[in-house]
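S.,

Sequence below, as promised.
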Amino acid sequence: MKRLLTKLVLVSLTIAVSPQLIGGVSVGGIGDAVRAALMYGLLYVVVGWLLSAVVGLLAIVPGILTLGLFFFLVPVIVHTILLKWTAGILHGFTIRTWTAALLLSVLLGLLNFLIDRRKDD
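The prediction came back faster than expected:
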């Protein structure tokens, strides 16, 4: 439970700070950032697994052609789509371009990597 709350706080802070780092992202305030983090997490749990399967199937040919390197992009693509959906659902959180969603997805992926790595220490 502590790890989940820590992740929620860190993702919320990352979303709150992202407009200063990434053009095309806007957040109304910290409350909107927390709501965005909660909605993003909920979407990931509810439809993320299905989206991952669909994108993974579509990535088979590019994955073979790139000797498997393309499969590293599948989670980034899934999270980018989920972030755009989150922004479409909420009023206080806006992502104007797919590039901004991709950059925020990479930023959140790095944060997630650091959190998971810290857990192992």
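Residues 22-112 form one domain.

Coffee later?
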